[in-house]
């Protein structure tokens, strides 16, 4: 078994960008070469800006190369929860931004000819408990009624047309959701940005940042120092000390994934005949899908812990058990890949983007960043160019996580809380 993300292992390797010169002045500096940073870089370069991206590790090292590859039209919180928090009109605007986000992703893939298996196969929201199907029914009524969106309810009696599992009590299909190969997409996005003149610096951690006035900053890396007119922090769950204001507002929660050996088309036709992206309805949910080469990818939070090889292996065993509970027919199937990554959870599980002390930032995608990080990169390019309305999330208060001073000591307690909620609801 490989403890490396399947996506990065099966995507063409990009050039080594760890030897580039760092120094002098740049118009825009972006911290983080994931979907947010690379999309922002590309869109800013399209406007003619000189852009440098600084990445602590390599392109796609963070969540962008480690996720499930589900680009869904739903928010991290349910639509009905959003309505009770923000009122119908605001909740609708937020939800529709997720629909726009999948469009942004699709457009970018087409415009830049990124070969990444993007397909709008739809998303299956599976009811893990009978009462959860009632919730899905209510959501479907609002979505297909007042919002006019393409959703469909699948009762338990018809579920075999969608999934080869007896574990669920019905489902709701979101037809416009998509799946893609995120390794090919992220590396392809980096290539596209580089073609437009963006300079990418790998192995270039920004260790210190100092404000020089307005939005102008000095960035210090071990390989050199630069001055930038504008800086975008795009570090998601990997946000560290130099960006303290953002760091204490984000809980880096481990999420883990296993990928099976190739199963062949016939077996995949039995598991997920319509190749939908799928997730369960528990608080500690599982998500799964078929990969382009016919493996099953199965992920979830498994444990509230960070990610390293030992932690990933432990989570992998929990995920294997969960996978065989959903699909007992896979009990003898080999697992080829197991890895983990950090999800950038905000207190309210909403996107947070704006400017603080002259620093631009976009993060807090809370597990729904494949489409939204890509979209926010584009929107932040507009926002930084002087169009505040491009950033829909600009007025949402970004609250500090109580007791969060750096290392996320509180994760096991939060995990216990959500496990308890799943038992009782
Ligand atoms: C296991 C897992 C599964 C997921 N599944 C899904 C899914 O199926 N669908 C979905 O929509 N979302 C999913 N997500 C979330 C999604 O992947 C993220 O929201 C999205 O990739 C965030 O992109 P980003 O560019 O903002 O951040 P990242 O891709 O995390 O990039 C941030 C980068 O910043 C770099 N960095 C940090 N600090 C510094 C510094 N000081 N100097 C230089 N560089 C620095 C890091 O090395 C990192 O590469 C998942 C996340 C994980 C971890």
TrEMBL record:
One cellular component term from this protein's GO annotations in UniProt: cytoplasm
Pfam families: DAO
UniProt xrefs under InterPro entries: FAD-dep_OxRdtase, FAD/NAD-bd_sf
Ranges for domain FAD dependent oxidoreductase: 28-382
Disordered: region residues: 1-20
Superkingdom of source: Bacteria
This protein's name: FAD-dependent oxidoreductase
Annotated organism of origin: Streptomyces hawaiiensis
């Amino acid at each position: 078994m490989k403890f490396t993300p399947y996506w990065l292992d099966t995507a063409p390797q990009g050039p080594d960008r760890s030897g580039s010169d760092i120094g002098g002045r740049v118009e825009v500096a972006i911290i983080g070469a994931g979907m947010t940073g690379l999309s922002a870089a590309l869109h800013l370069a399209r406007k003619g800006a000189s852009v440098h991206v600084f990445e602590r590790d390599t392109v796609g090292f963070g969540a962008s190369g480690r996720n499930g590859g589900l680009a869904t039209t739903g928010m991290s919180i349910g639509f009905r929860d959003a309505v009770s928090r923000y009122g119908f009109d605001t909740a609708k605007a937020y939800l529709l931004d997720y629909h726009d986000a999948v469009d942004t992703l699709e457009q970018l893939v087409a415009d830049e000819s990124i070969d990444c298996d993007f397909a709008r196969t739809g998303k299956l929201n599976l009811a893990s408990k009978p009462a959860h199907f009632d919730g899905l029914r209510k959501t479907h009524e609002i979505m297909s009624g007042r919002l006019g969106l393409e959703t469909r309810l699948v009762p338990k009696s018809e579920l075999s047309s969608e999934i080869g599992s007896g574990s669920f009590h019905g489902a709701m299909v979101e037809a416009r959701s998509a799946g893609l190969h995120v390794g090919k997409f992220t590396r392809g996005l980096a290539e596209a940005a580089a073609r437009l003149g963006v300079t990418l610096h790998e192995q270039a951690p920004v260790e210190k940042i100092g404000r020089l006035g307005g939005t102008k900053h000095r960035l210090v890396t071990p390989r050199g120092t630069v001055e930038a007119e504008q800086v975008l922090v795009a570090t998601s769950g990997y946000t560290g000390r130099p960006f303290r204001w953002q760091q204490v507002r984000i809980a880096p929660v481990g999420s883990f994934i296993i990928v099976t050996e190739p199963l062949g088309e016939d077996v995949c036709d039995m598991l997920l005949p319509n190749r939908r992206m799928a997730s369960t309805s528990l608080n500690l949910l599982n998500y799964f899908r078929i990969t382009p080469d016919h493996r099953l990818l199965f992920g979830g939070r498994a444990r509230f812990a960070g990610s390293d090889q030992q932690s990933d292996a432990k989570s992998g065993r929990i995920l294997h058990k969960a996978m065989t509970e959903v699909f007992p027919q896979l009990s003898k199937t080999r697992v080829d890949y197991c890895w983990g990554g950090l999800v950038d959870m905000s207190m309210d599980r909403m996107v947070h983007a704006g400017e603080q002390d002259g620093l631009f930032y976009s993060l807090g995608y809370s597990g729904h960043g494949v489409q939204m990080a890509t979209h926010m990169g584009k929107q932040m390019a507009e926002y930084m160019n002087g169009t505040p309305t491009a950033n829909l999330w600009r007025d949402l208060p970004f609250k500090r996580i109580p007791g969060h001073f750096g290392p996320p000591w509180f994760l096991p307690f939060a995990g216990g809380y959500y496990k308890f909620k799943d038992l009782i609801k």
